[in-house]
Amino acid sequence: MMAVIAMSYTTISHAQVKGVYQGKLDVSTPDAQIPTIDQDIYVIQAAENEITLKIKDFSIEGMTIGDIVVNEIELQTAGGGYSFAKDDIISAGIFTSLEIELQGSISTEGELNLSLEISNLGITVDFSDGVRRDFYTEVMAGVYEGDLYISTPDAELPAIDQEIEIVSTEDREISLNISDFSLEGMTIGDVVVTEVEVVELTNGTYTFEKQDIISAGVFTSLEIDLEGNVDAEGKLNLTLEITNLGISVKFVDGVTNSIYINTNQSEFSVYPTTTYDVLNVTGTKESSKYAIYNIAGINVKSGNIYDNAINVSDLSKGIYIINAEGRSIKFIKK
Fold it and tell me: Cα–Cα distance between 289 and 287 in angstroms, integer?
């Protein structure tokens, strides 16, 4: 097991720790050392100074254990980063009582390392060099306004202004809602597609797609084929085919305003949320600390707030998250 240094207790900046970590997983059993595999580990905010850690679909050769979820893990400061440790009894899949010992750390560079022992199965799990891919879907969340184009088997309808809402449901999943969707003379109702998986591309564009059968209004079985993306400038584009009705929907260049990722009583806010050079700041004390993260969750700028303004002209074009006063806000640098 890796050593964990005794640390002091402090308020945790969850913007620095939560996210999806991609790294190497080494598993050993009483009988064998399993070959190293690529693995994602999810770190989710649970409380002010606590996280939940999840290893999805954990399995060993020939034996499926299921999702390994450890809740209420207290974080402590560790040389600018954080450390954690917990002994617990958890359930996973068909296993109702797994005795686990967990220790690990998250560095200031956003690297996760941990060791997990499942003592009653004799299994040791080591995760190393986990690189955070943060804000997978939180940067996408919001209400987008754009042009909606609808074609039916009989006609191409004029473009209309439409709002589409994206809700972040998990680190890599969203739900998408087109409220009060209707065609000329035919009301379909709210079109809601859930559990849509999101993939990040290297150019900062988040793409998604899903085929499903959903219900909407009086329609109990709509066969849909959805694909789309939110690009590096924060614009939503998508195509939705309702195949059993012969309807094709295209949403073009949808833009959204700032999204508050976590809520508390802080009045911290920024404007404009799309800027070329300066973010104006309200609700902070003079010299309050701030940190700015790109869509990969990497800290690209930090410092103190003076004169209620932050110069961001040195940032590249794209979507960013600014964190201050315990609150995180999305903005777009043009």
Answer: 6
CATH architecture assignment, domain 142-255: Beta Barrel (2.40)
Q: What pTM does this model have?
A: 0.46
Interacting residues of 218 by C-beta distance below 8 A, sequence separation 6+? 189
Fold topology of 269-333 = Immunoglobulin-like (2.60.40)
14-133 and 142-255 agree in CATH topology = yes
Distances in Å between the Cα of 102 and the Cα atoms of 53, 113, 221, 306 are 10, 11, 45, 42
Of the ranges 45-59, 113-127, 261-275, which one carries the lowest mean pLDDT score? 261-275
Q: Which fold, 14-133? A: Lipocalin (2.40.128)
38-55 per-position pLDDT tens digit: 888 888 765 668 888 888
Q: What is the dihedral of CA 91, 14, 205, 209, to 10 degrees?
A: 30
Cα atoms in the Cβ-side hemisphere of radius 13 Å centred on 198: 30
